[in-house]
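Field: COMPLEX_INPUT
Field: COMPONENT_COUNT = two
Field: RESIDUE_TOTAL = 1019
Field: MODE = joint
Values follow.
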Amino acid sequence: MTKGTVSGVIANMVTLRVDGAVSQGEICYIETGGDRLMAEVIKVLGQDVYVQVFESTRGLKVGAVAEFTGHMLEVQLGPGMLSKNYDGLQNDLDKMEGVFLKRGQYTDPLDDDRVWDFTPIAKVGDKVQASDWLGQVIENCQPLKIMAPFQMEGTATVKSIAPAGQYKIKDIMAVLTDEKGNDIEVNMIQHWPVKFAMTNYKEKPRPFKLLETGVRTIDTFNPIVEGGTGFIPGPFGTGKTVLQHAISKQAEADIVIIAACGERANEVVEIFTEFPELVDPHTGRKLMERTIIIANTSNMPVAAREASVYTAMTMAEYYRSMGLRVLLMADSTSRWAQALREMSNRMEELPGPDAFPMDLGALISNFYGRAGYVYLNNGEVGSITFLGTVSPAGGNLKEPVTENTKKVARCFYGLEQERADKKRYPAVNPIDSYSKYLEYPEFGEYIANHINDKWIPKVLDLKTRMLRGKEIAEQINILGDDGVPVEYHVTFWKSEVIDYVILQQDAFDEVDAVTPLSRQEEILNLVTAVCEKDYQFDTFLDVVDYFKKLINVCKQMNYSPYQSEQYNSYKAQVEAMIS
Amino acid sequence: MATAFQKVYTSISQITKATCSLKAKGVGYDELATINGKLAQVVKIMGDDVTLQVFEGTGGIPTNAEVVFLGKSPSLKVSDQLAGRFFNAYGQPIDGGPEIEGKDVEIGGPSVNPVRRRQPSELIATGIAGIDLNNTLVSGQKIPFFADPDQPFNEVMAMVAMRAKADKIILGGMGMTNDDYYFFRNTFSNAGALDRIISFINTTEDPAVERLLIPDMALTAAEYFAVEKNEKVLVLLTDMTSYADSLAIVSNRMDQIPSKDSMPGSLYSDLAKIYEKAVQFPESVGGGSITIIAVTTLSGGDITHAVPDNTGYITEGQLYLRRDSDVGKVVVDPFRSLSRLKQLVAGKKTRKDHSQVMNAAIRLYADAANAKTKLENGFDLTDYDNRCLDFAKDYAAKLLAIDVNLNTEEMLDVTWSLFRKYFKLEEVNIKKEFTDIYWK
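Field: COMPLEX_OUTPUT
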């Protein structure tokens, strides 16, 4: 293997003089004071190689020796990853010793000794391609596939396959014979370089299936679909993280991967603490069982922050190739972009807008492009739904990360300071936010078949009413309460009903936090009935009085368990008020 | 300073306002050096060329100055002797007392493994309703005051520190005026609390770049008491904007491309490294904690500036002070202030109605603000508007003002009494289970 010696150090960028071939993105380990520091090649200039070190370079000296590994940054994929807490380089955090993260400490992402119940799928003589399913093990009730090696080329024949029984991940589960007659031994572990997209599927059609999140402002107003993409930009303090956590708790997905990328450690701790206790509303099992956390918090080394989102995406692709529905959340993609900026800056590259690297847009769109709903080679389907948050500097959405993300993500959930200040949570702006999927005919057909064909027209009608309500609020501000006709007040207050009853939702209330689709349908119908009713009032004060009462009853209804006695009595009160 | 076996270099090739470069071998990154006795730190190595950042500035350094590398990064001697003492940015005593004996620990050490943290859940009571009621602080939290330089943030911070039941209070003063330094000294000693205070002070009279060491010094001391002694430590950092300004100076001298507001591109990571030292340890490692209360001064209330903006994304909320002209008092602004960890204690460690009462009061206070706008624009006010305005005055004077000192239960009772005084039941929008009990 190629070796190198350190010739320069600036923070976590190190230059090496090498004695042989290296490739862009190759991983090397630098030896210093007994620690081995992992680093990645980011630029090659003749014999001089620039690497970014994933750890602190304190004390590193010129002349230190580096050893190249011959491969790029890879993850190990296999059974046993669920409910684990990894850092951005896929080290198992629970296996690390001590309270503090020691430099140069790398731990095994999988458990070699854990025993799995294996059932074969493929038979001797079957022709298989890369990623085809050979067998299955069950982890936390989730069927995980043991697949033909991802890197395998062409078609191979199954020469032997292990019978049903108990095995460990490094046991040989099958032997395949490739086109040249070479035998390939297959165990349960796959390797994949994180920066490359897995394209082991037949087709990636437009996604169309609603992904239920239990958050009304999303499901009802701006739905996201299985295999869809969306992003949540918002200034600090507007509830990005609360919204993301709500989605990751409630979404109807088989696997949830949370990449905490350059964010607060306490937020990750919240997940560690709560998820093992909370129950998945769809399966009744503990949430942690379907969750993987990639924690690269803001105080962890910057270079690993960039790697963390790729690590998470590669894991998601692994589960997608098994025909599972994966939800991937990254909080926040801005921190990832900032990590790119720090490195670009140290390399003295000419900066693009706001000192970000010029290829930022390309990197973001390639990354979002890895999500999607796919048909696998065997006809099964799998999906990666990707939701990223963006932390725009100064809350200004005209900045490079937001703008570039907007070009690729199909759903936009803009969080707004003004709404947050008024405690109207979730602070998703109802006017500016959108879901492109509402316009997809495939999606319309799916909703018509699975909910009803009035759903989308009703939603679109409410959206128009929200806009109208906002316009009237502005007119009232200018002209005064008495300066506009009473009907204007009615229109405005109808939009307030939509806001208070559908859009606002208390993420910290046990009942209100999650609204199943059937309940959302009932609320939508109720609010639509209010909106379509012709009201006659004498003065605007009567309008205000009536609607405040109505909203109060509706809110009490939202706080009551679905179809409980309480709920039904509040619902009856609302119905009486609008009949 | 040079001792035997240490190589002395005497040929500096380049001097800028903050850095010196020379040819040297066997130097480690981040290592300390002295240049004619002045402390400096390695910030760049390129082959034989080593660039040093000189904390005091390079004024008076000749090209033949004696450069000695110390073979270690900046460090602090930690032991119980730290308590009650005042230090400069290098951790040297400035109170005339003896040198500290103890373990020499490199500052800016590694971060806590997130899986070894515990979720913060202990309330820090300050008696100030604008904080305890609306923006409850929790031990292990990190939260700054966002304040204009003329606001009494240091006074409020000192008050919070004195009332919070912390085992140790560590003050990191960066670019602090001499007057403020004496204010803190006097407050601490008047309260008879000097023995649990440790201060690291860089005043406006000291070199700006030295400030960069202050937070790490303070937090290294904090980690000693929290990890080794299992204590509850409160760290006060004022003012982090001066710290960021020093970062900008250094990055500018090193010809780095600035990002927003002339700040270095790494500002987010630099600040996060400091704030993320706030931690609650689980009982299995002693149960100590580090809570950080900081100050970020703003320019004309502008929070879109890179320093408050990045800070806001890192810290767990922020507190704003504002002079309320209606009651003539400084209040904790309920709209813009936020404690992200409050839901971990509100209604759990405090009375169950806490969250709902807090939200309802703020919503009504917001309605009062709207009514005020209407009034200013010359429109007629409704009866509800007038009641909101009256409520707002009472609410500001009896709860939001920083001179309030109540326990949380009293705060809730006062709020309920204001609700009843000014509003109808359906106007407060609170869950029935609470109105049944408290609306009497």
